[in-house]
Write a structure and sequence with these properties.
Blueprint lengths: L22 H12 L2 E2 L11 H12 L13 H15 L9 E4 L1 H13 L5 E6 L3 H9 L3 E6 L1 E3 L2 E3 L2 H7 L4 E7 L11 H13 L3 E5 L25 E6 L1 H4 L7 E4 L2 H11 L8 H10 L4 H25 L2 E3 L6 E5 L8 H12 L1 E2 L1 E2 L13 E5 L4 H11 L5
Parallel strand pairs: 1-13, 3-4, 3-7, 7-8, 8-9
Antiparallel strand pairs: 2-10, 5-6, 9-10, 11-12, 12-15, 14-15
Helix pairs in contact: 1-12, 2-10, 3-10, 4-5, 4-9, 11-13
């Protein structure tokens, strides 16, 4: 028998009242029901390196990680993460006290914000933003303050004056994402230097989401914010194996920072998943030790896929904003006489047999991205060719 309640109070915590089913679940379900090509959710349609997959199988068979792993993560992975940060960026981390393994970057973001933000604190986030940012800020009781990346010169740019003006006496934390999802923007060394100076000047904490660190194209470079003067002691850096090694289902992410910051994040994280992905942690430790040729080849392959889909989108009639990083392309639908990206994306599977994501859901003010649509290009070449052919129907 179901017990009824007389309370008029909603069941859902009011901090989450504005959030429903994620757009990714909605559009992926639409792809499944229509048989459309799913260029919406950002996951590869092929697995990563065979030697990494075999490392996971070997760990399972050898009984490594089949029981609860250590709360901070297995020592082998924490050591590999610290070595990666040192080798790639010259960042020194103590694997025992300054590295924390998480259930993907999403948990790392949640744990960081729950640990560092109190009710009433303001958190500045670059919009459009990954949708979990808004939900995690809300769960922490913080107030979201967006600073918008705007179309400029065929891409998107951050207005540093707007960022500075957004900081108030209530600002606790900057939430920075570079390479940036969904726009593909890679913040330059000069832009990051200004952000670092602002954080030091106003004594702000920074959480920086760098999961696409190995996916930067052309002349762009990824520079961790923690490498700038005064930033290591105030920056929580988030990384992930899913985007770099194409095993997104393993959900292995990590946090690096000072012992004080990592301890704070671990305190919140231990009451979320506690631990996860035991055998996969050993495999990711091996993956991080792959030679530079793997990372270079992976980046080159994704750059080629970017160009393949980008050319197809331009031929179909979209305005294309060329991404400098990630595996997403943002487009504008106004050349078709369309203005409502959500309506456009709902109709696209029937019109063309392709699913995409409306960027408007990544903005506090949906009007700011009302005509923007995001496509993922981390798919097989034959899938991208077929998607481009189907989208050409729009041109006619």
């Amino acid at each position: 028998m179901t017990r009824m309640t007389s309370s008029a109070r909603p069941l859902l915590n009011r901090r989450l009242a504005e959030f429903g089913t994620t757009i990714f679940a909605e559009m992926s379900a639409l792809a499944l029901s229509t048989g459309a090509i799913n260029l919406g959710q950002g996951f590869p349609d092929t697995d990563g390196p065979e030697e990494v997959r075999e490392a996971a199988v070997r760990a399972l068979r050898d009984g490594l990680g089949n029981q609860y792993p250590p709360g901070p993560g297995v020592p082998e992975l924490r050591t590999a993460i610290a070595a990666h940060q040192q080798r790639r960026y010259g960042l020194s981390c103590d694997p025992d006290t300054e590295v924390l393994v998480t259930a993907g970057a999403t948990e790392a973001i949640a744990a960081s914000l729950l640990a560092l933000v109190e009710p009433g604190d303001e958190v500045i986030a670059l919009e459009p933003y990954y949708d979990s940012y808004a939900a995690c800020i809300a769960m922490a009781g913080g107030r979201r303050v967006p600073v918008t990346l705007r179309p400029h010169g065929g891409g998107f740019r951050l207005d540093l004056d707007e960022l500075r003006d957004a900081v108030t006496d209530r600002t606790r934390l900057l939430l920075i994402n570079t390479p940036h999802n969904p726009t593909g923007t890679v913040l330059t060394r000069a832009e990051l230097a200004v952000i670092a100076e602002l954080a030091v000047e106003r004594d702000l904490l920074v959480v920086t989401d760098e999961v696409y660190e190995h996916l930067v194209f052309d002349d762009a470079e990824h520079v961790p914010l923690a490498t700038f003067p005064g930033m290591r002691e105030r920056t929580v850096t988030i990384g992930s194996a899913g985007k770099t090694f194409s095993f997104t289902g393993w959900k292995v992410g990590w946090v690096t920072g000072t012992q004080e910051l990592v301890t704070a994040v671990r305190t919140a994280k231990q009451y979320l998943t506690y631990v996860s992905a035991g055998p996969f942690q050993y495999a990711v430790a091996e993956a991080l030790r792959l030679p530079d040729s793997y990372f270079d080849g992976f980046r080159a392959d994704l750059r080629r896929k970017r160009d393949l889909l980008g050319d197809g989108l331009r031929t179909a009639g979209f305005e294309v904003y060329q991404p400098q990083g990630t595996y997403f392309i943002t487009t504008d639908i106004t050349p078709f006489g369309e203005k409502d990206a959500h309506r456009f994306c709902r109709a696209l599977p029937e019109r063309c047999g392709v699913v995409a994501i409306p960027n408007s859901v990544f903005y506090d003010d949906p009007a700011a991205g009302r005509s923007q649509v995001r496509f993922a290009f981390c798919k097989r070449d034959d899938v991208l060719h077929e998607a481009a052919a189907r989208l050409r129907r729009l041109a006619s």
